[in-house]
Design brief:
With about 650 residues, this protein is mainly beta. The protein contains 3 helices and 48 strands. It comes from Massariosphaeria phaeospora.
Amino acid sequence: MILGRLSGVLAILTGAVSGQAAQRYCDPVTSICYSGWTGGNGIWIGVALPSTTTPAFDTALQIISPIANGWVGFSWGGTMPYVPLTVGWVNTASNTSIYSSRMAFGLSLPQPFDGAEYSYLQGTGYNKTHWTLNVRCKGCSEWHDVDGNLASIDPNGAAVKFAYAYARLAPREPANNRSTFNSHTKFGHWNLDLTLGQNAKFNQLIAANLVPDALKPSSSGVPTSLPTSVRTSTLTSVVPTANPGPIQTGIPMSCSGVSALHFPTLTVDGWKATKVAGGLTQPRGVIFDTAGHLLLIQNGLGITGHTIGSDGCLTSAKTIITQRNLNHGIALSQDGKSLYASSATTVFAFDYDSATMSINGSSRAVVTGMDNRGHVTRTLTIPPKHPNLLIVSHGSNDNFDFESGNMKVGRSSIKAYDMTQVPTDGYNYASGGQQLGYGLRNSVGLAFDSDGMLWAVENSSDEIHRGTVDIHVDNPADELNFIGDPSKENTQWYGYPTCYTVWKPDFITDRVFSVGDQFVMTPNDTFSDDTCTQTSVPAKLALQAHSAPLDVAFNKNSTRMYVTFHGSWNRNPPTGYKIAEIQFRKESTGLFAPSHFVNSTAGYKDIFWSPDVEHCSTTQCFRPVSIVRDKYERMYVTSDSGGEGELIIFGRV
């Protein structure tokens, strides 16, 4: 419906709410009173609830946004992952505004969420300048957090934390409330006094303003939880062969029943990529088990297992573990009997049978106490030369996590834990285990060279300034770091959150820098650029700023390293969305190192990329995440693009 009374409502709001102070506002259309706030870009958000003292209770949400905003999102828990999210946008096909119920299982496209029930209220619609979404929600005041614990809103809280986000671009399918949409342009947090939004006759007001289901949007295009493009149906059992897995060494031209890649890609001469599965649910970490099956983390679903045919294509799939908080990390013990997977807060161990791709019994927590804020994916790996150790990488809890500069905090760090000595309640991440470096902002990709030394790629900070000058488009560099022997304690500091690596020195005008030099955002007498040089471990190779390296893998003799660049989420123009190759050599010390020095911008070459990267986004283009290499030197690579979750086989031809 077109809003005939929106101008009057906006005039009242302008007088009722100024700046970011929450105030009580009663909507003249519905008579529902909200605790409301005017945030970024002229967006008004109000929350209404009954007069109550305990959850669970129904809530009402009002969003009024300038028409220029493609979508606006609201977090009922004040953060992005593992809380109910309400997203709204204009649906011109039905001449109204539309809601979308979502939940995110990491810093990725929030997935459709059926745990909350919505109804439209009177006043929903749009005019030439603004759109309004009025909804009643059942299931937004109480939910289960990342660990399965019940969380709720305090109805009498005087400063309840909420969050919002908005984007300029509209969703891909505005008439479909399960549509994909691009990352936010901006986000923010604020507190509301919910006593200001209490309504003594809440239920009566809601009943009087409910809108019939004629406005109910399309829900076509719902993604499936298992790949739709494998050649046979879901397995209930698997019978191993004497020689499991592929027996051909090349890259197949195509896989039967599998569609083409969702987005165009290019490869360097001599390489080929073929899609082996699509329709996946945000695929992340991928490994082989000892029987040659692929095990895959699907973020928000759990772990799926996939058999591989003689040509390298997938032949069948099954769900091994249904556990929605498993979001990235996966590893398997060398004997194939212990499967490890992680949520934001906990590493779980499962007794695993490779022959049947199944688990036995319940999971047990082996590492606990990790932070559930900020970068919530954890990377797990087991050193080939030290199979008793489990390596766990933990990122920062924010863009600038200043507390993590203290090693004892246990964030922005990599640690090792002896799986033969696990305490009854598991290790605490911060206080247990052995340190393998800290000041590593978000080292998602880990790999061992053929000498057993550990390497890591790091995603560096966004929104960087040098003093008052914005240098963030091409600084700081993402990094390739040498961690070393995983069996030996490493208490070295790698710089974050104070020291960063230069990628484009011309952007920093107050001092002459070279690529790979270290710098601070605000040099002073206490801590300067030179302090970084003296106290932090420099990167071994600088990588394009904001390209987001997420995984690394060596070839069998460690002369080459392969890196997935997930792609930037808010850089203009975008960068990344590719796979690159780094040449390695042996130094006089006997250790492996990149063939190019840290001051080079030619230290790697693209071997797989998106042809129109300037148009890429979180829902456009193939977004490489994780790599696993088979015995023929071919790589299986996941992509968690919002357009379609996919898996490719990639290698030389």
